[in-house]
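Bumping with the actual sequence this time:
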Amino acid sequence: MTICIVVKKPGLFNDPDIQDIEPGLENMQAIVGGWIECVRIPELARKGIDLWCNEEGKYTCEPNFVYFWPGGPGDTIHGTVFLASHNDEGETVGLTEEQTDFAIAWLNDRLPVVTLERP
């Protein structure tokens, strides 16, 4: 059985991508390229959506997008991320169609981080 997730890779021209994956820690780690961490973002949490990223992404991964906490400072999310949902037992499950549409719109509304190389 697969679950539906939305994946966003770093880069200005990398749009969110809907993917079906086999559930499991190893598959989730493969997507983000390392240890995983769930970041609870209020706008997503209200819709039952979790954002998963590389736990060490701030130190090892390319910047992806900027997120501004409501009423607080901004933060940069690094590396490939994916959005999924969870059930009442806390297990990661696939997104519904409504959640998928919301996740894509939310990701498209983030400010991408562009890194420039010095000549």
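The tokens above came from a reply further down the thread. The chain is about 25% helix and 35% strand.
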